[in-house]
Amino acid sequence: MRKKVIAGNWKMYMDIAGAVNLITGIKAGLNKDSLNCDVVICPPAVNLETANELVKNSPIGLGAQNMYFEDQGAFTGEISAPMLKAVGCGYVILGHSERRTIFGEKDELINKKVIKALASGLTPIFCIGETLEERENGTTFSVVKTQITEGLKGVSADDITKVIVAYEPVWAIGTGKTASPEQAQEVHKYIRTMLSEMYGSDKADSVTIQYGGSVKPENAAELLGQPDIDGALVGGACLKADSFLAIIHAV
Ligand code: PEP
To answer: Rounded to two decimals, what is the model's pTM?
Structure first.
């Protein structure tokens, strides 16, 4: 049975006071007895240490939004996997569409980060997804195929079940436009079929595939009810405790 994972990507929002407030609110509202998913928060890097203190002894896991693939060195502005581990991270978002489009990250770089995260004991939340133009010109499947083939190059069959894949159609991120449950399920099924061809069906059936793109309390249950949707990567709606909790409790 795959475990559903609800992860909140805070992006570049929340100072320390805001982070304390948000985490306190999430902790207070989390119904621990009926929780049937893993919950992860991914605050900005400067808030990770504080967040780690607050989520200790709670069911909330901690993740970062990015990292570099070297352990240390002259890489101004970057953060390494050992540094993330040292502040209590168990997860790291890699290849988010904002990293790909705004910061020019390519599959090859993202692949190095995925390999490093796995080697360091961090769970990569590996993001893929097509742009609106790619969907409209009918290349969604081939775009996703390339992102998976290149991004997961060298990931072993043993390690693939430690990867969380997040399918995030770029046209649905931060736009309020959600993929319909059927549109999302169609691509999730395709991703699982690809993983099955690469690693066998037993492994593919164990991989958590999250959906991301304007997930909110109103659409969460229907999306999460699809057979191949194993959770959500949530942006805007994770910045308020009430809406993040409503998505968690929709599982
Ligand atoms: C995201 O940042 O990964 C995301 C899905 O954002 P939003 O939920 O705001 O669309």
So the answer is: 0.97
